[in-house]
From TrEMBL:
One of its GO terms (biological process) is L-phenylalanine biosynthetic process. Residues 192-282 form the ACT domain. Residues 3-178 form the Prephenate dehydratase domain. The keyword Transferase does not apply. The keyword Amino-acid biosynthesis applies. This is Predicted protein. It comes from the Eukaryota. Keywords: Amino-acid biosynthesis, Aromatic amino acid biosynthesis, Lyase, Phenylalanine biosynthesis. GO terms for molecular function: arogenate dehydratase activity; prephenate dehydratase activity. PANTHER family: PREPHENATE DEHYDRATASE P PROTEIN, PREPHENATE DEHYDRATASE-RELATED. CDD domains: ACT_CM-PDT, PBP2_Ct-PDT_like. Pathway: Amino-acid biosynthesis; L-phenylalanine biosynthesis; phenylpyruvate from prephenate: step 1/1; Amino-acid biosynthesis; L-phenylalanine biosynthesis; L-phenylalanine from L-arogenate: step 1/1. It holds the Pfam family PDT.
Length: 290
């Protein structure tokens, strides 16, 4: 049985995503995203399953930053449908609820519902953790935005279900491991890379053409300021000529074993100042190989 690290407490959506990815695994909760990365790096767990983007809230930038500072490889992805519930201690009316606690992403995903409910939104580290906190402290008048499983684990009543503002609320989780995944025949693959480009006119166009010329489909392109060299071209007095330096995160439909993809990446590296393959893995495979 493999051990899979996730961020949060039992009942968190990340725990459910870990079990969807590895149905026979033993999930191991971690307090912070960094702890899940370190747990896998230090052999305390075999995998980490963490959220990287959501269809409503966008990218979880912290994890995109962390994947650069840790030597783990992406070995799979899971698209997990999030179904938020309004949980509170039993024995009270929904109209008596005045505050809603949850992770900032969950609060933003239910913003319209909570505004209509007329409650104060209060950020918490974790969805299920908010439910556990309310139960532990006996906080009447407080609600948590969390999963139905969290309600069952912490003795909460489900006052409302599917309260997210958009029914197509899906989170993309990535599975991380110490070693890259060997390619498999007959399985559609994705590859994730990150790079920075040499400065010059049309630099991004030229980089993307490496894939377009070979009919390789890109599924994600996102830029982030380069944390270790965020600004270039500034004068000593700090005036004029200043601009951000960016990293580009790119996902594309191909395996690293594909010759066409290898040629595209060789072409791309001629135009980069930094380049790293984050992983090559089965696309949207809900049951990942151990």
């Amino acid at each position: 049985k493999i051990l899979v690290a996730y961020q949060g407490v039992p009942g968190a959506y990340s725990e459910a995503a870990a079990l969807e990815a590895y149905p026979t695994c033993e999930p191991r909760p971690c307090e912070q995203f960094e702890d899940a990365f370190e747990s896998t790096e230090q052999f305390s767990t075999d995998r980490a399953v963490l959220p990287f983007e959501n269809s409503l809230g966008g990218s979880i930038h912290r994890n995109y930053d962390l994947v650069l500072t840790h030597r783990l490889h992406i070995v799979g992805e899971v698209y997990f449908k999030v179904r938020h519930c309004l949980l509170a201690l039993p024995g009270q009316e929904k109209s008596a609820l005045t505050r809603a606690l949850s992770h900032p992403q969950a609060l933003s995903q239910c913003d319209g519902y909570l505004t209509r409910l007329g409650v104060v939104k209060e950020e918490f580290d974790d969805t299920a953790g908010a439910a556990a906190h309310i139960q532990r402290e006996g906080l009447f008048g407080h609600a948590a935005i969390a999963s139905r499983r969290a309600a069952e684990l912490y003795g909460m009543h489900v006052y409302d279900e599917d309260i997210q503002d958009d029914e197509s609320n899906v989170t993309r989780f990535l599975a991380l491991a110490r070693e890259p995944l060997p390619p498999r025949e007959g399985v559609p693959y994705k590859t994730s890379i990150v790079c920075s480009l040499r400065e010059g006119s049309g630099a991004l166009f030229k980089a993307l053409s490496c894939f377009a010329l070979r009919d390789i489909n890109l599924t994600k392109v996102e830029s982030r300021p380069m944390r270790w060299n965020p600004v270039s071209g500034s004068r000593k007095d700090g005036s004029g000529g200043m601009q951000f330096m960016y990293l580009f995160y790119v996902d594309f439909d191909a395996s690293m074993a594909d010759e066409n993809a290898q040629n595209a990446l060789r072409h791309l590296q001629e135009q980069t100042t930094f380049f790293r393959v984050l992983g090559s893995y089965p696309a949207d495979d809900s049951t990942l190989p151990a």
